[in-house]
Design goal:
With 325 residues, the protein is of the alpha+beta class. The protein folds into two domains: 5-271, Hsp33 domain; 277-320, HSP33 redox switch-like (CBS domain Like, Alpha-Beta Complex), CATH 3.90.1280.10. It is built from eleven helices and 15 strands. Strands 1, 2, 8, 9, 10 and 11 form a six-stranded antiparallel beta sheet that branches. It has a six-stranded mixed beta sheet with strand order 7-6-3-4-5-12. It has a three-stranded antiparallel beta sheet with strand order 13-14-15.
């Protein structure tokens, strides 16, 4: 592939780096999609929580998937991915605040995780077990939320996402996710990075702009372009998806340059938590009882830690004395 591939695509900008989502369409293959590449922003989230590697890797997949889906929102709202299971990793919550804010956290059962890792069972489907995943689009106080639920029965995030779009939106979808650590020369520890591609079928050149969309599940079985696009995506391995030396644009060109590839403006994603002292104070006053608040007192102060960003907030217990009367 020559260095002029951006000009071949009609782009007058440089290649993207990390922490971006890049939308694209494949006009000859009746498909559209998004590719994400994460470096520092993902590492900031995972490193702060200091989860065991299998848990961090799983949360990394969830953060990558939520960015692929949430970045398609055309309004200032939130895309919330929440997973609850009976597995070793029993809760994952990822919050994508449009247009580009991302945060996430996980909970796990230490004993279950230890048993599985001792047996070498660290694949996502082995860690998750059975449960359900809720994907919610929150358009603000003046609009109703849109939510889709997916049953989880020993499957990973790629299949979970494909099942979600088929059941909730009836859109044939293929997803590839990869999360790994990379050692950088001169650094004391490796850093987390991830990559992901979401590919969706568009019948008859239809332009699906955001969720929810038009059901198209029954139109794709014999579409040669869609079958070709899926076949090209299946050739992609984790190393390519994670390789920072290959820009998102170059990777798309390698995979789909014969499919009428059009690449659009990249969207930068950043780790950003929405917690604040004011929000925590309001939550303590309106959603917790006096007994609950007493249980949070440490060294004479109510201590609250944000599960997303680990920030700690402190309040005087006396300021809540009269609110329950």
């Amino acid at each position: 592939m020559g260095d002029n591939f951006l000009r071949e695509l009609g782009l007058d900008r440089d290649e993207s780096g990390e922490d971006v989502v890049v939308p694209f369409t494949l006009e000859k293959y009746s498909a559209r999609g998004r590719i994400v590449r994460f470096g520092k922003q993902l590492d900031n989230i995972l490193r702060r929580h200091n989860y065991p590697n299998p848990v961090a890797r799983l949360l990394g997949e969830a953060l990558t998937l939520a960015s692929l889906i949430g970045s398609s929102l055309k309004f200032e709202g939130r895309f919330i991915l929440q997973l609850q299971t009976d597995g070793a990793v029993n809760l994952i919550v990822v919050d994508f605040n449009a247009p580009n804010g991302l945060r996430g956290c996980a909970r796990y059962d230490h004993k279950k995780l230890l048993k599985l890792t001792e047996k070498g069972k660290i694949k996502p489907k082995e860690l998750l077990g059975k449960g359900h995943l809720a994907m919610t689009i929150d358009q603000g106080i003046n609009s109703e939320n849109y939510q889709g639920l997916v049953e989880i029965d020993n499957i990973g995030f790629e299949e979970i996402a494909e099942r979600y779009f088929m059941q909730s939106e009836q859109i044939p979808t293929k997803v590839r996710l990869a999360v790994g650590e990379e050692q950088i020369r001169g650094e004391s520890h490796p850093y987390w990075r991830s990559g992901g591609i979401l590919l969706q079928y568009l019948p008859d050149g239809e332009k699906i702009t955001q969720i929810p969309s038009v059901p198209v599940a029954n139109k794709q079985e014999n579409d040669e372009g869609w079958l070709t696009a899926k076949a090209h995506l299946a050739t992609l391995d984790d190393a390519e998806l994670l390789d920072c030396a290959i820009s998102p644009e170059r990777l798309l060109f390698r995979l789909f340059h014969e499919g009428g590839l059009r690449i659009f403006t990249p969207q930068h994603i950043e780790e950003r938590c929405t917690c604040s002292a004011e929000r925590i104070e309001d939550m303590l006053a309106n959603k917790f009882s006096e007994k609950d608040r007493e249980a949070m007192i440490k060294n004479g102060q109510i201590e609250v830690a944000c599960e997303f960003c680990s920030s700690k907030y402190y309040f005087n217990p006396n300021q809540f004395l009269n609110i329950d009367k």
